Amino acid sequence: MTDTTFWTYPPDQEVRGHGDDYTLTLLLPPFPAGTVNFSPHDPEKARHFAETFDTVDEILEELPPVSAGDFLALETRADLDLIKVGCWGDVISLTDPALADTIGDLPLLGAATTLRERYPDARIVGSANVDRGEDHTEDIIQLPDGLRLHTEGWPGVEPLEVTGDPQAVVRALGISPETLAKESIDLDEESDEIDWRTLGRLALGPGDPWGRADLPMSVFRVRHTSTSTYRMKEAWFSNR
Question: What pLDDT, in 10s, does the model give residues 57-70?
Answer without folding.
Answer: 999 999 999 999 99
